[in-house]
Amino acid sequence: MASTAEPTHDWFSFLDARVATAVRAAALRDTSPDEALRGLYISDEQALALADEAGAIGAQPRLERAAQRLGLDALDAAVLAVCAAPELHPRFGRLFAYLQDDVTRRLPSPRLAADLLAGDGIEPGEVLGCFGPRARLSTCGAVRLVGSEPSVPLAERAAKLGDRLAGFLLGAPALAESGAPLPLRRLAPQPMPEGRDDALARIASLLGSGSALPVLVCGPDAGPLVAAAAGRPLVLVDARTLEDPVVLPDAVLAAALEGAVLCLDGLRDLAPPERARVIAALDAHRGAIVLLAASGAEALAVNARAVLSVEVPLPGFAERRQAWERRTGGADAHDVAAKFRLSLQQIDDAAEVSLVAARAAGRGQPSPADLDLGARHASSSQLGELATRLPAGPVWEELVLPDRQRDRLRSISAYLRHRDRVLSDWGYERTVARTQGIKVLFAGESGTGKTMASQVLASELGLDIFRVDLATVVSKYIGETEKNLERIFGAADGSNAILFFDEADALFGKRSEVSDAHDRYANIEVAYLLQRMEAYPGAVILATNFKRNIDDAFLRRLDVVVDFPFPEAEDRRRIWELLLPAEAPVDADLDLDFLATQFKLSGGAIRNCSLAAAFLAADEDTAIGMRHLVLAVAQEYAKQGRLTLEADFGGFHDLVRMRGTVA
């Protein structure tokens, strides 16, 4: 028998002839059947009649295609025909049961296959070897031995055709999904935006290298790029499912039959034992396989295995804009493409959300707000489990700050809008060697607007903002602070969110002299935070009430420092105006100038006073008057531990007495 598959050989006709010969030989040996047991076995007459029904079963062309796609030689193809026969026609199952002298054994055993195929230069041992665990039929998932009871001899175990292959030979591939050990994910090739030609060429070169080493493609668009480079769909297997030994052969079979590329993903967060299993599976796998990793950190899961690696970055601004506009039907995507660094798959998902939002509002095309909404949905992460999402409601007009501070804040907004253009397109990323993120410090007394300024930035840019209280992150146990920070930044990867670290001085204080192990580890914690901040591609804002406690060396490593001054009288009056809503009932003679000049309060304190006065007025069912506001101020002073002597209120009592507002 030839060593390679022979497409013109009719294996089922060959099998029919061999089975008929075997049945006749068995019938001659059985000369005294026990009629009392008829019905519990297949009689010689029945077997001979079934053997004489030999004829084409219509699966020969599909068997030839399967043998070619699976890379089977002629002997493998013959063994495959034996195992496939009961799946394709029930008479083969009955004949196999007759030949094995057991009405329940309708699947062939390795011994039966050897008996049927041996001869013409083929030894029985060669046929038995086709069922070995490293034989091609086993590694590609075409055939597996079932039933491992100790009482069943190895060569007598049933040989089961893979369900996917059975469905393929029956002409009903979808039927196989019902019996698959795990539903497989698939990814079809999609057009790539301009600018990915180099990455596609590198991937195509590795895929066509003929090397037995796995190909590792690292990047957020690894899957779509592999599909585009290969010009074929992908069959995706989650690495965490390889604990089941049936999963990988089943995926190999599906990929081969569908002409797809077999890919392994889900490498992130693999525990050490799971990593060992993945490496073992790669070592045992003899065919081509592609590993997909969203980031370099994820690729570390297979760093103990030699691979052919290629790293593909996130799409640039022009690519993102083109992908947005193609997917949304021409909506102006300049702003959203600049602000949100999304992968192509994320852009597809974001565009779908944007289109749904536009249709719900009766718009033909998504608006900028719709695009931002879709981008935020596509950027969703696990940050909500570790940090507090702040509402992005305030706008620039509500933020009361001197011009210098407002200009610094607008420079942060400009950076996040135009960083791709300046750093990548204009080449500054190469000449100044900086990262895409930005590190900011907001310093000022409590209530001076640090949190609100962060919310204003998020609102203008359409980004999510999450607040992390560093005081809750810092741990007295060595190494725990770094673990807490790693969880936060790991969850933030790909979120495009602004990270707002409150109470930064809890960790980011003066660098201590190393007098003991705790001092040394405290410095390590600060260095680790800086390292993760620099690696984060978005904006990280640190807020502190005590800038003087921040080490000068660390201040120099920040990109922007904004000092939030205590508001002057003019700013305080503006804050009072903004915090009295137009809908609220107020007395016509409110003296905001008096409140602003007489009481030195921060913006946060004024907010508290305004709200407290409103509740006092509501409780009395009257409009908000000076009496309510001053009483609220007195309560705020008391809360802050400040004395509320009459001198603190200047001539207020005389003023209100003359106006008749107090008794």
TrEMBL record:
Gene3D superfamilies: P-loop containing nucleotide triphosphate hydrolases
InterPro entries tied to this protein: 26S_Proteasome_ATPase, AAA+_ATPase, ATPase_AAA_core, P-loop_NTPase, WHD
Keyword ATP-binding set for record: yes
A GO molecular-function annotation: ATP binding
Keywords: ATP-binding, Nucleotide-binding
Protein origin, superkingdom: Bacteria
Residue ranges annotated for the AAA+ ATPase domain, each copy included: 436-568
Pfam families: AAA, WHD
Protein family (similarity comment): Belongs to the AAA ATPase family.
PANTHER family: 26S PROTEASOME REGULATORY SUBUNIT
Name of the featured protein: AAA family ATPase
Source organism per UniProt: Baekduia soli
